[in-house]
Amino acid sequence: QVKAQPTDMSAVIERAAGMIQPRMEDKAILLNLQLEPVEVLGDPDRLIQVMMNLLANALTYSASETTVEVHLFKEQEEAVIRVKDQGIGVETSEIGRLFERFYRVDRARSRNSGGTGLGLSIVKHLVEAHHGKITVDSEVGVGTTFTIYLPLAS
Ligand code: ATP
Ligand code: MG
Question: Signal peptide: which range, if any (predicted)?
Answer without folding.
Answer: none
